[in-house]
């Protein structure tokens, strides 16, 4: 999968995107920089597409990227993706997330955005 480099080496970039997609699945929305949000949008749409197919192969493919973390109810992120998030988008063909610009970060004036699931 080709990503924007995000000024990181490939292992750091993959770890960053794994953390971001896991947090997005568990929390519903996250605040990050605009460039990270745009890369995460591409990845989140692919994960929802895997969740919609809901086969053993798609579960393994998604599980190879999503971290095994639990939410407040004790559900793993992969379970939440396949049981809650993907069924919501069963009738939708893409565009599962939205990126909303929020301004600039105080410390370094980096442009910030909130990425969340479309309801």
Q: Can you list the strand order of the major beta sheet?
A: 1-3-2
* Class from helix and strand fractions: alpha+beta
Radius of gyration, rounded?
Answer: 14 Å
Give me the strand/helix succession: HEHHHEE
Overall number of structural domains: 1
Q: Termini, distance in Å?
A: 27 Å
Characteristic terms for this protein:
alpha+beta; 50s Ribosomal Protein L17, Chain: A; globular; 119 residues; single chain
In short:
The chain has helices spanning 10-27, 34-53, 56-63, 77-88, and strands at 29-33, 97-104, 111-117. It has 119 residues and is an alpha+beta fold.
Could you please describe the fold and organization of this structure?
With 119 residues, the protein is an alpha+beta fold. It has one domain (12-117): 50s Ribosomal Protein L17, Chain: A. The protein has 4 helices and 3 strands, in the order H-E-H-H-H-E-E. It has helices at residues 10-27, 34-53, 56-63, 77-88; strands at residues 29-33, 97-104, 111-117. Strands 1-3-2 form a 3-stranded antiparallel beta sheet. Helix 1 packs across helix 2 (34-53) and helix 2 packs across helix 4 (77-88). It is globular. The relative contact order is 0.19. The model has no long low-confidence stretch (mean pLDDT 94).
